[in-house]
Amino acid sequence: NSSPCSPFQQLGSPPDQPPPPPPRQRVGTRRWRVERRHDIDAFTPGLLSLYESLNPSEEHKAKQRQLIESLTNSVSKEWPNAQLHLYGSCANSFGNSHSDVDVCLQIDTAAEENIAELLLALAETLRKDDFDNVEAITSARVPIVKIADPGSGLSCDICVNNLFAVANTKLLKDYAQIDERLLQLAFIVKHWAKLRGVNETYRGTLSSYAYVLMCISFLQQREPKILPCLQAMEPTYTVVVDGTECAYFDQVDQLKDFGAENKESIAELLWAFFHYWAFHHDYRNDVISVRMGNTISKQEKNWTTRVGNDRHLICIEDPFETSHDLGRVVDRQTIRVLREEFERAATILQYDDDPCVALFEPYDYES
Fold first, then answer.
1. How many other CB atoms are found less than 10 A from the CB of residue 175?
2. Which domains does the chain have, with CATH numbers?
3. 96-113 pLDDT per residue, tens
4. What is the DSSP string of 260-313?
5. pTM over 0.85
């Protein structure tokens, strides 16, 4: 009763094994308008209890706070003006209890000061303060110090002045407070992507951050809208990172009822999300833009052709680093895998008697 072998497994099978099965075929024809099944809402309770089970516990959040406290105590002795920020999935409201803890050290560094030297000094300080497994990795694209904290039992990566990531984290966290359906949709889509093997950038599929942006953009475009476009509103928060202004309306407590006119349930939204990505998204021409609250054209972004390793086969614009396409890692093979998975999900939600089981059936990666 195992799931079909992953399309990735077809590469380099040992010669003594039978040939792998062909990749899954496209499901049915591309229909532009499918009438949504009438009983879709029957699956809302099951989806909501899945969402609740994926939410991190209060205990886990308390451990994160404890970790930041211990780190702050250590860092402030050596660098009294430095600030520590949690960023990424552990802090943007979209992480689960297994999410990595990422910390950014914000510090005024003279331009000529070497980040590698700073990280080595930081590692030395943290070793003295009895953090475990302290390791400075200075050659990475984003240099970090890895540590384990015996107090909270958590491990974390610390980088320096990655302030775009801090701004992105705050933006996502603010969107998450406007309408709980965003958290419900994003947790369920991320869970699906992980189980189906399409949440692995090193294999050419999409990051969790990309899926969250896809969910925000999708809810910005529902009729009536469920989410506003915060960057199109009068900014109440502005930070300048590397000469780029990151600005948006962050007083989201004023927007609590923004999506109230839209009555769609999580089951209806999940159905519509997968139908959009399976049958309606214009992969050839469109870019998903949370910044604009809409799709924009690849032409406008100059993302029509491959540049170096950046292919623009599915385009998701970073809201602040707007030259950054989160879909650039997807190649000719993995775009097919992604689209087949979107179609599989859409078909299961439309026709399956118990979609909540089939939808999340894990890929069978044979070792």
1. 30
2. 34-54+171-358 (1.10.1410.10), 58-166 (3.30.460.10)
3. 888 889 999 999 876 546
4. TT----HHHHHHHHHHIIIII--TTTEEEETTTTEEEEHHHHT-SS-BTTB--S
5. yes
